[in-house]
Amino acid sequence: MAKTTLVWLQRELRLSHFPALEKAIADSERVAVVYFHDPKQLIGDANSAWLAQSLQTLKQQLRARGGELLIFSGDFADYFAQALQLIEPTQVFYSFQVGQPFSAMQNEALTICQQNKVALQPFFSEFWFDPGVVVNKQKNPYVVFTPFYKAALAQVHTLEPFNDEVTENSADWKKLAWPEFKEQGLSVIPEDLLAIQQQPWAKKILKHWSIGEQGAWQKLRYFIDDHLDDYNEDRDFPAIEATSALSPYLHFGEISSRAIYFELLALSEQQSIHYQPWVRQLLWREFARLLLWFFPYTEQEPFQQKFSTMQWQTDAELIEAWQKGLTGIPIVDAGMRQLWETGYMHNRVRMVVASLLTKDLNQSWLHGLQWFADTLVDADPANNAMGWQWVAGCGVDAAPYYRLFNPLRQSERFDAEGEYIRQWVPELKTLSKKAIHAPWLHQEECKMKGIQLGQDYPLPLVDLSQSRKRHLQRVEQLKA
Ligand SMILES: Cc1cc2nc3c(=O)[nH]c(=O)nc-3n(C[C@H](O)[C@H](O)[C@H](O)COP(=O)(O)OP(=O)(O)OC[C@H]3O[C@@H](n4cnc5c(N)ncnc54)[C@H](O)[C@@H]3O)c2cc1C
To answer: Which residues form the Photolyase/cryptochrome alpha/beta domain (predicted)?
Structure first.
């Protein structure tokens, strides 16, 4: 029987820098590239809209080379077992992913492969380092970023670039053809995903992005040419296009973080580029992935377990006002509306909106995590959980519990001219740069400009000095 490898895709929707696919093509006579779509296992709506487009793009990429993407749609365990029966692989290769829904599916796949006596091989290509490589002297994982970062940098010389020799050889793509399965409708994008992609809100979000491997590399090249050198100075200013906006591409594995590093290294040999501050952020992502590998409970529970007794209030009206960008605090509302319109929010503003929700409004970080999971195109189990816990003060390396982001100071500092607010909160766009950060403190100007607070734009949900005091009291009680 021909040696057949099933390459199981999760969040590595690309063809290059993909060791599982490279090895499968090199080692086997036939290769089935398979995506399992289980409607119960979606991360969130915006993420699913991107997924639908990403699968379409990948399917076209494979077809252009004479290959095929096979898609099984339905309960994961049932269809994984069915795929083994139909394709009869000798082995299954996949890239290991952290967090849900991936962990559960990986466990199920292991059981089913064992029952069917099929070898299952994970690859750690979505990490820079295999888990357990960057550890402290006691062989424990780092739980503070800076020492992790230093230790990781001390080991980057051990990394090897991906070998794309076989995937670059067009003749080998014939191994991925599977015309019989194409006829059986196994290369069709699932209707429920297409339905999400066709929603007006999804169309509005997707028009901001050029989804797929090619779009990812174009974005990277544009970022390197136009923004990399100034990244460190400009990255915190949301009105400036200064960051890469590569997070969704990285989440879907349309581009590999490790391949980006080697691209930067190669470039730095030809020209002078200032890439270290950006690599630091890529390593934040690595840190988040390793944390979830070592501490899987942190996806839904605080890393510092003493915070599990924190008394959150659940106020549906407050949460809804926050979600809709109607808190009356312009920088927060701008961020929440950017998220709703584009499926993305600037990192600095993510921290500010998260701090307001958890510390000033006293709503659990899990409400925020869930909303982000539903609305971000880059919604990622590792980065999202780490980000929320960092801000809420209950995670690793967390912002100290007593530190609240003062949204007014943040707004004045990082959006001094109010450009970001004007873009996303147009009802305030005529206000001066002095008034725009806190319209309620400038009621005369609002009146002059015809803005009726409480009607055209909300009054703030909370008095920020009072909410700060209440937060500090709650934390003191927790400590006691
Ligand atoms: C409350 C909160 C929730 C978040 N949720 C997510 C999420 O669901 N998905 C997600 O990808 N990021 C999340 N982040 C991290 C960060 O905001 C985004 O990765 C970043 O804004 C993406 O923009 P960029 O691609 O332009 O980043 P760049 O500044 O260009 O950075 C390059 C890459 O490094 C990684 N990165 C950058 N900052 C961080 C960080 N703080 N933590 C981990 N990785 C980072 C990302 O993969 C990013 O694409 C969250 C942050 C916070 C505070």
So the answer is: 3-128
By C-alpha distance, which of 258, 189, 273, 184 is closest to 226?
A: 273
- Nearest C-alpha neighbor of 230 from the set 239, 222, 242, 221: 242
Mutate to test the pocket of ligand 1, among 100, 209, 243, 347 (most ligand atoms within 8 A of CB): 347
Name the β-bridge partners of 119: 91
Position 145 scores a pLDDT of 95
81-102 confidence digits (pLDDT tens): 999 999 999 999 999 999 999 9
- Domains in the chain, CATH or no CATH each: 4-125+162-183 (3.40.50.620), 129-160+210-294 (1.25.40.80), 305-479 (1.10.579.10)
Distance, CA of 26 to CA of 13 (rounded, Å): 19
Residue 416 near residue 433 (C-beta atoms within 8 A): yes
Q: Is 437 in the pocket of ligand 1 (CB under 6 A)?
A: no
The kind and range of the H/E element at 438 are none
**Residue 387 near residue 346, CB atoms below 8 Å:** no
pLDDT digits (tens, 9 = 90+) for 16-42: 999 999 999 999 999 999 999 999 999
Give residue 397's pLDDT band: very low, low, confident or very high (50, 70, 90).
confident
Over residues 332-356, mean pLDDT:
97
Residue nearest to atom 18 of ligand 1 (CA): 347
In this prediction, residue 179 carries a pLDDT of 85
- Ligand 1 pocket, 244 CB below 6 A? yes
Distance of alpha carbon 363 from alpha carbon 352, whole angstroms:
14
Surface-to-core class of residue 108, CB atoms within 10 Å of its CB (0-12 exposed, 13-18 middle, 19+ buried) = middle
State in Å: Cα 275 to ligand 1 middle.
17
Ligand 1 center–CA 436 separation, angstroms:
27
**Is the CB of 357 within 6 Å of ligand 1?**
no
246 C-beta closer than 6 A to ligand 1: yes
